[in-house]
Write a structure and sequence with these properties.
382 residues; six-stranded mixed β-sheet
Length: 382
């Protein structure tokens, strides 16, 4: 049995931020990570051409900026290096290959009892902790939706987390399911490598340029969101024109307001819209069923595909191991409370990076959590 003050689950950007903030306040902690490295999603499950969607000033973790000569939009390799430098600066030493099996609150002892598995040694480790921080993220498990006949598909099926490059798909018929930033960029990558690419766009989306989003985030500090949104939508309409005839429609709520209220981000165009307009990427509607290599869409159209890429997000696995977390997380493992009050539960339970507010949200969660733990420790000793 190992007794710790704070136990952090997860070594992604959220978990690293928590560790750094606790270190700044000289609060001891132990960090558990089931993968073999920190930030495994960015390091191992991101496609090659990935760049951060937002300008670097909006993508910093607490207490450490990017190098002054870093490009405005950080590529994957540089972001991973930034995280490695962050780990080194704050002397963060996660226990890797350690998976949390269960975590329950002991009302008698007033602490959390955590059972973990050392996956390398196949041994069980037990901890008690005054404070427990869930920083395992929303992206714990790949989410592939149920489509009638999917099991009969004779081609290749992958989740976007396994996609690296379109180099090997020249001349192949590929369907991308999902129109978030990753889906749109994967479709672009496939098309530019010569794949016959289709993409399913089911939801209304705002399409912006990275410069517009940077402008919007800057203006949002000085102007009302509805005014900022009006500026962004007018500019986007001028740049892209009417996209509805190409199967892309905008939500009624503006992009900044939508992000603030729901966590849904605008799609930052990397050239996908231009290829859609040229017919090099076809926009499809919802699927109806699949038989063999044929995908039938709701409109009745039937197309043969060699591969399907699912850019359909992830789901949290927190509720599998976290018991007594009902004060903080819902059945989907996401915060119950509204943003800005979501990060704290009862009995010393906290979460970070679950509010879909990007790096700014991660930084705020980490600082709030560390400061609150510091205050709680102070009240215990007084």
């Amino acid at each position: 049995m190992e007794n710790v003050v704070v136990l952090i689950v997860g070594a992604g950007p959220s978990g690293l931020s928590i560790a750094a903030c606790l270190s700044q306040l000289s609060i001891p902690y132990v960090k558990l990570e089931r993968e073999s490295c920190s930030a495994s999603l960015s390091r191992n499950r991101a496609y090659d051409r990935l760049k951060l969607d937002l300008a670097k000033e909006f993508c910093e973790l607490p207490h450490m900026s990017y190098p002054v000569d870093a490009p405005t939009y950080i590529p994957k390799a540089l972001f991973v290096k930034y995280l490695d430098d962050y780990v080194e600066r704050f002397n963060i030493c996660p226990k890797y290959h350690t998976s949390v099996e269960s975590s329950t609150y002991d009302n008698d002892k007033k602490c959390w009892s955590i059972v973990a598995k050392d996956m390398a040694k196949c041994t069980t480790i037990k901890f008690t902790a005054k404070f427990l921080v869930v920083a395992s993220g929303e992206n714990s498990a790949e989410n592939i939706p149920t489509i009638p006949g999917l099991e009969s598909f004779s081609g290749e099926i992958i989740h976007s987390s396994s996609y690296k490059s379109g180099k090997s798909y020249f001349g192949k018929n590929v369907l991308v399911v999902g129109s978030g930033n990753s889906g749109m960029e994967i479709a672009y990558d496939l098309a530019t490598h010569g794949a016959n690419t289709s993409i399913i766009i089911r939801s209304q989306i705002h399409v912006m340029t990275k410069e517009l989003i940077r402008l919007g985030m800057t203006l949002a500090h000085r102007l009302p969101l509805n005014l900022v949104d009006n500026i962004l939508v007018m500019a986007a309409n001028f740049i892209f024109g009417d996209l509805s005839r190409h199967g892309i429609t905008r939500p009624k709520m503006g992009p900044m307001a939508l992000k603030s209220k729901t966590g849904r981000s605008a799609v930052i165009d990397v050239g996908t819209v231009g290829l859609i307009k040229k017919g090099k990427i076809e926009v499809q509607g919802c699927t109806n069923k699949i038989f063999g290599n044929i995908v039938e869409f709701k409109c009745g159209k039937k197309i043969s595909f060699d591969m399907i890429v699912f850019e359909t997000g992830y789901k949290s696995t927190t509720n599998i191991w976290l018991k007594n977390g009902e004060s903080m997380l819902n059945d989907n493992g996401l915060p119950i409370k509204e943003y800005q009050n979501h990060w704290k539960g009862e009995n010393g339970l906290y979460c970070a990076g679950l509010a879909r507010r990007g790096f700014a949200g991660i930084a705020a969660d980490a600082k709030n959590t560390a400061n609150d733990i510091k205050s709680m420790i102070g009240s215990m000793s007084s």
